[in-house]
Amino acid sequence: MSTPSEKYATFRSDQEHPAVKEFRGLYDFELDEFQLRACAALEDGHQVLVAAPTGSGKTLVGEFAVHLALQRGQKCFYTTPIKALSNQKYSDLVSRYGADKVGLLTGDNSVNSEAPIVVMTTEVLRNMLYAGSSTLLGLSYVVMDEVHYLADRSRGAVWEEVLIHLPDSVSVVSLSATVSNAEEFGDWLETVRGNTVVVLEEKRPVPLFQHVMVGKRLHDLFAGEAPTARVGAPAKPAKSGNPAKAAAKGDLKDLVNPQLVRIARDDNRIFRDDSRKPRRRRDLPKGRPSKSHFTPYRSDVVEELDAGALLPAIYFIFSRKGCEDAVVQCLRSGLRLTKPSERDEIKRVVAERTADLPDEDLGVLGYHDFAEALSRGIAAHHAGMLAAFKEVVEELFARGLIKVVFATETLALGINMPARTVVLEKLSKWNGEAHVDITPGEYTQLTGRAGRRGIDVEGHAVVLWQPGFDPREVAGLASTRTYPLRSSFSPSYNMAVNLVRQVGRTRARDMLELSFAQFQSDQAVVGLARQVQRNTEALEGYKESIDCHLGDFLEYADLRRRIGEREASGSKRRKLDRRIEAQESIEKLKTGDIIRIPAGRSAGWALVLDPGMRSEREGPRPTVLTLDRQVRKLSMVDFPTPVEAIGVLRIPRKFNPRNPQQRRELAQVLRTRTDLLGEDGPPSRTRGRDVVSHADDPELQEMRAQLRAHPCHGCSDREDHARWAERYFRLDRENREVQRKIEQRTNTIARQFDRVCQVLDALHYLDGDKTTEAGDRLARIYTELDLVAAECLRQGVFDDLTVPELAACLAALVYESRSKDEPTSPRLPRGDVRLALERMGSIWRDLSALERDMRVDFLRSMDLNFCWPAFRWASGASLAEVLYESDLAAGDFVRWVKQLIDLTEQIADAAGDSELRRTARAVVDQIRRGVISYATVVD
């Protein structure tokens, strides 16, 4: 029950913010304090950055921007990073405001694009800004959902482009996951966009409890209350840079469940002891399991969660095949999680949502197995699935009809699919190059799906036990909030020509200096600049201590320093010369030579038994017999100086170095021979060389003469001054290094832009502050290989190709293999396609060489693995034929064809009124058929 003061505060807030009051009335629940603060700031005319945990309701602030735009008769764009999220948000807004007021632009779909509210992917808005689209007229608000995507290496630059290029009259609502440098990001937004209010929320809306499943038993990860289960208490950052390792070192030692620590210790001991046992091949047990007996089966995990009332659950497996295998395993185990009434509703929804799919494609799409799994409350969700199937899974899961979804990490990227429990099978994933541990930010993003607001009292995160499991590292992941947002911005060729065409080269360069990447670099420079300032002040103090009444002591000290460096350099040279000379002397040794070992444990007289083979890394390794009857294999360490054979002793032909009697007899003969030579042996030809070596350097002698003649040489405080001078030179070296770092970090983005422009100048895409005709074509092409596509257009590579041939060639510019294991010599169509692809390859090589000359690296290699599937599909082949011949997943095939459609439409736009434009449009018509043309709200 509210107190009188709270009621009065609410009354005052309603008076000051009537739009917020009206908006609150649309919901049957109370808004959180952070939501009210953000909405009030937006109504007051500020721009807003909201950073809050997954599932906390930050999108409600974006919806308030929509409400404000409609209330004021203005326009609002709601942008998302992925089409799935765009379509989901479109459906939400249509259900609230009606289809006539909401539009959708995702590349695949264009619905009511001139509506006052338009939902779109961020790339669509970027393209509209560069094209100067009339749809931007009247725009007052832009919501950038999942704005932390700007850290994405491949797409992150788009977010910064939009934030930089949006008109100043547009208010931006930035919605981000919790990041540890939200204030820094807010400062940048303030610089670029103007007055920005940063609203941070650390508290999860539903407490999250952390568990580890060992076998079939669920253990609490923490001995007491989990940090994520504390209401209103943000997690404490780890002391070290790596939070998981910090936890393992003991920062969280007292917090981790001691029972898990004991299990880990015992499990590691079992594996360690087992690995030490010598085993013969026939002793190894057949069918020995590769996993620890503590790792539970997937079907067992689901059964245990069901028994513990912890469903629905999202079960993260970082593998598409793993997700599909998990569904099959659950079906084979006879698992059924739904009631008869739920099964009937599932079948109805599945039939309704897939009614438009061609009947002849259902078999190859695996429709029947998919539907059977859904009827049991089990599903997979990953990027390789058909978009229509993913849509069905998301709808049924949101309604509580699907009880467990085996998913890859893509499910965590913004799609509204909360669950009671999240399961992580492993804490490492394949990033395309290697298996890497997930970061604290990724762990939080994944487990953040657990706990449905308004439904669950608490959420649960479950990590499965694996061999080598360390519960303290998991506790570090679960307790840490130290994941900063880092910009991935860099200028591209398309970006450069668009900017130069709009505002000229100088203004474009200045605009790019506003990027978050440069802002972060400049922030680092501020700290370095302070360090330079402190060092400069210290250097002035050192100068005062060095001051000498007889002359310039810094000049004298510099002369001493140069003499020392010259002597050290000479010593290093002589040391290297001695090593080379010593190695050459050892290589001349023969069996039976009597030598004196100059150093090491075996120093003294010895007899060479075997000169040894030369090793490139270690040098020669002679084997010798010493006077104490030991056989030793020597190395270069034993010979700091050259060695000479001072005599020869015949070694018996049947001498066995392993026979003690024979060693003793031969050593006695050696002793008799060496007694005649005395302890030191004959004089060495190398002795005395170092004594006169410095006298052989005239430049060094000249510097020494200058030193003795310098006025400060006779100063009584000379050595005291010299110590201060040494400190001065050391700090001066450090200061120059810091200044070099500042130069490297200053104007980094502008320098990159200059190099990009140099490439475009060399290819005549730019002419001063204007774009050429070729540059105008490049401005219409948005792909990683934009410059290759533009050069192919200019050189007529695509002219005279047929529809299937053009589809095959353009496929090489969009496709990128998921795995390096895909064939490097894929199947290709015959005839003109191969000739065109050869020309494209030649163009790519020429451009790559030019990039190397200009010190840029933007163009990845072309990938020909999708050329044959694109050719066959454009030739009219069935889906079953194409998938069989290409070994592609249905969802992957559909996604790549849609990307091919995007590029083909861009080529048609850039080609002008020509036969190529008509061919490109024919390609789009030919490949947009069957399952591709299915109007789904997910991609």
Figure out the total of helices. 35
Q: What is the approximate shape?
A: globular
The major sheet is characterized as:
8 strands, mixed
Structural class by SSE content: alpha/beta
Average pLDDT: 82
User: Which strand-content bin applies to the residues?
Assistant: 5-15%
State the low-pLDDT regions, or none. Answer: 232-250, 278-293, 685-692, 935-939
Write down the Rg. 37 Å
Q: Would you report the number of β strands?
A: 26
Give the helix level as a range of percent.
40-55%
Q: Numbering strands along the chain, what is their spatial order in the largest sheet?
A: 4-3-5-2-6-7-1-8
Distance between the termini: 46 Å
Give the secondary structure arrangement, pairings included:
Layout: H1 4-16, H2 18-24, H3 33-43, E1 47-51, H4 59-71, E2 75-80, H5 83-97, E3 102-105, E4 110-111, E5 117-121, H6 122-131, E6 139-144, H7 157-165, E7 171-176, H8 182-193, E8 196-200, E9 208-214, E10 217-220, H9 243-251, H10 258-276, H11 298-307, E11 313-316, H12 320-332, H13 340-353, H14 359-362, H15 367-375, E12 378-381, H16 387-398, E13 404-407, E14 421-424, E15 428-430, E16 435-437, H17 440-447, E17 459-464, H18 471-479, H19 493-503, H20 505-512, H21 516-546, H22 553-587, E18 593-597, E19 604-610, E20 614-615, E21 619-620, E22 623-626, E23 631-633, E24 647-648, H23 660-675, H24 689-693, H25 698-709, H26 718-745, H27 748-762, E25 766-767, E26 770-771, H28 773-778, H29 786-794, H30 803-814, H31 832-854, H32 867-874, H33 879-886, H34 890-911, H35 915-927
Parallel strand pairs: 1-7, 1-8, 2-5, 2-6, 3-5, 6-7, 9-17, 11-13, 11-14, 12-13, 14-17
Antiparallel strand pairs: 3-4, 9-10, 15-16, 18-19, 18-24, 19-22, 20-21, 22-23, 25-26
